[in-house]
Amino acid sequence: MTRSIRGSRRAALLLSGAAAATSLLLSGCGAGQVSETANKVPSVQGVNIETENGQLAVRGLLVDFPGVDGYKAGENARLNAVIYNDSKQPVTVTVTSQDAREVVLTGTGASASPTPSESVSESASPSGSASASPSDSTSPSGSASPSESASPSPSAPAGEPARFEIAPLSYIQLNYQGDRMLELVGLNESLRSGQNVFVTFDFGNGNTITGPAPIAVPFTPPAPPSPIVSREGEEGGASGGGHGG
Questions:
Q1: Mean pLDDT: which of 53-62, 126-135, 231-240 is highest?
Q2: Looking at the DSSP assignment, which residues form a beta bridge with residue 163?
Q3: How far is residue 230's CA from residue 50's CA, in Å, rounded to a whole number?
Q4: Global pTM?
Q5: How many angstroms separate the CA atoms of 58 and 53, rounded?
Q6: What would the pLDDT profile of 195-209 be if each residue is shown by its tens digit?
Q7: d(Cα 78, Cα 62) in Å, to the nearest integer?
Q8: Inter-residue contact 216 to 64 (CB < 8 Å)
Q9: Distance in angstroms (rounded) separating the CA atoms of residues 199 and 100
Q10: Mean pLDDT, the chain, whole residue set
Q11: pLDDT score for 83
């Protein structure tokens, strides 16, 4: 009787010890090691840059996908960015780029003209005398409603200087999810997906950051070109019919 009781006690102690060791191993795997997904960088396009103090930052800096042929020199390119002001003071931001003639603000549904200054001067000079006489003749009451209705809508501007103010502890969204976005006007050289355009954000008071804006790449590969075998067959069939005749 004594031996059987001692044997059962030893078996119980061995089983409890094995269970405790198993629980320690499992807890060690969960707490002592870092999962592989924790070290992975999210596969989201765009670059994040910020000032040294971290109070001013630009997130998701990215140039629109140009298509298979890329951007040609002199063309315009849309620029996506979300700019944060985590300071307690308002800041005025000026955006420039060494890789384009200028940077402008434009509506998400409108593209900036290649030369905004020239288009404004040209539209102002010929319409000075021509617009005055029709308005006087068509509106006897002297109201300026026809000329005002002909002006472009402010919701879709053709392009204005990339200079704007951000309130304290706020941000501005310049992408397709917002009302406005940045546009690079007159690229200095041709660009393709994977290359970068350097953009400078001047927040004033010596707070300036410059970072690369990558040219977006497509999430899906382009469609393969149509096979040329059918074309060769058609030409051969046509030539064969000629010989037969």
A1: 53-62
A2: 94
A3: 55
A4: 0.57
A5: 13
A6: 999 999 999 999 999
A7: 9
A8: yes
A9: 9
A10: 71
A11: 97
